Amino acid sequence: MVNENPAEHDMLTRIFRMQTELNDYVFKKNDLKDISGNSLTMETIYADVNSGALKVNDLPNTWLSNYSRAMREEITELDEELLWKWWSKDEINIQNIRVELIDILHFLVSAMICSGLTPERVYDIYRQKHAVNLNRQDSGYSKDTKTEEDNKKIN
């Protein structure tokens, strides 16, 4: 029997790997370079986050900004697929909606990588934030009671 890596079967890990490969392919195909003149890679951006290169002109900020804008544009495309006239007899195109959602996911995963997140950290932070959200619901959360103290405890 072949030794199998359990992480290889984790879908989020696979999505992160596939997105990294796609981004690296796009960077290479478009001859994008890092500040040293080497081919840009997601690993370079990820390494910059971990080394503390977080200023406005550093790669993490540049690419987080790029991916944030891309997500906004994809959300606009999603909005254009949705119907708002409740009196209309039109139907939504669920296939296009799904594709737009996946486009958003592509850029979201790219942004996660650019912020130094791994699939494991995404899960861990999601789990913590989920607990915060449940607690907020149970404690009568409103804009009058909102603070960021609970979010600051997420690590």
Give an overview in words.
With 155 residues, this protein is mainly alpha-helical. It has 6 helices and no strands. Helix 1 packs across helix 4 and helix 3 packs antiparallel against helix 4. The chain is globular, with a radius of gyration of 19 Å. It starts with 10 loop residues before the first helix and ends with a helix. 12% of the residues are buried. The model has no long low-confidence stretch (mean pLDDT 93).
Outline the secondary-structure elements.
Elements: H1 11-29, H2 42-51, H3 59-81, H4 94-114, H5 119-138, H6 149-152
Q: What's the mean pLDDT score?
A: 93
Structure annotation, total helices: 6
Which sequence of SSEs, written as H and E, runs from N to C?
HHHHHH
Oligomeric nature of the chains: single chain
Flag low-confidence runs.
Answer: none
State the major sheet: none
- What's the total count of β strands? 0
Pairing-aware structural class of the strands and helices? mainly alpha
β content, as a range?
Answer: under 5%
Question: Termini distance?
Answer: 39 Å
Binned, the helix content reads 55-70%
Specify the overall morphology. globular
| Rounded Rg | 19 Å
List keywords for this structure.
0% strand, 6 helices, 155 residues, mainly alpha
Summarize the structure.
By secondary structure, the protein is mainly α. The chain has six helices and no strands.
